[in-house]
Amino acid sequence: MAPKVEDGPVNILSEKERIARFGVVCTCGNDDGVQFENWEPGGEYIRKLTLKNVSRTMRKLKYKLPMTRYLSLAFPQNLELPPGMSIDLDIVFRPIVTEEFFDTIYFKLQDEIPITEMNKIRPRGFHVPVRAVLKKLECCLESDTIEFGLCPTKEESVRFFRLTNTGQVPAPFAWNSPAPFLIEP
């Protein structure tokens, strides 16, 4: 299902597709798009979105502010990117409630793009996703099942396995087993 913003569903292009159509790379750290993690309501968090022109011609862009009230950017201005150059935009996130959300920043090309089969009926701009994700409780067991096999009465069956906390919060756990069985870590 496509993400939705004020004007309805949007199509988020892959980095490869965005480069092919518009000649612009958008990065924020190692991610495609902007993602805020490990945040608390009432704080202020800033991420830099880097736009780089990888085409051979000047790119003139203008961006539309995100619809969510938790995000802010400098007032939209015309951005001029000569070939090979980049610019950083500060995206400020000020959450007031603990909830995940998704929005986009829409970049519209102001300059002319040569008509090709690829962009003949395509829009004149692209969306960059902005996400705020919550810390998650997540554990991973190295196998789907733990088979103890047949075991005679009053005998022990021992199996070793690894339970890994792959989330961002502590994961306390307790073993429960019906009588007469007993599980010990």
The neighbouring-strand order within the major sheet is 4-11-10-6-8
Q: Which ranges are low-confidence, i.e. pLDDT below 50, for 5 or more consecutive residues?
A: 1-5
Radius of gyration: 25 Å
Question: Roughly how much helix do the residues carry, as a percent range?
Answer: under 10%
Global shape: elongated
SSE inventory with pairings:
Blueprint: E1 4-5, E2 8-9, H1 15-22, E3 24-27, E4 34-36, E5 45-53, E6 59-64, E7 71-72, E8 79-81, E9 86-93, E10 101-109, E11 125-132, E12 139-141, E13 163-165
Parallel strand pairs: 4-11
Antiparallel strand pairs: 1-2, 3-5, 5-9, 6-8, 6-10, 7-9, 10-11, 12-13
What does this structure look like?
This protein is mainly beta. It has one helix and 13 strands, in the order E-E-H-E-E-E-E-E-E-E-E-E-E-E.
Summary, kept brief:
With 185 residues, the chain is mainly beta. The chain has one helix spanning 15-22, and strands at 4-5, 8-9, 24-27, 34-36, 45-53, 59-64, 71-72, 79-81, 86-93, 101-109, 125-132, 139-141, 163-165.
Main attributes of the structure:
single chain; 185 residues; mainly beta; 5-stranded mixed β-sheet; 4-stranded antiparallel β-sheet; 4% helix; elongated; disordered N terminus
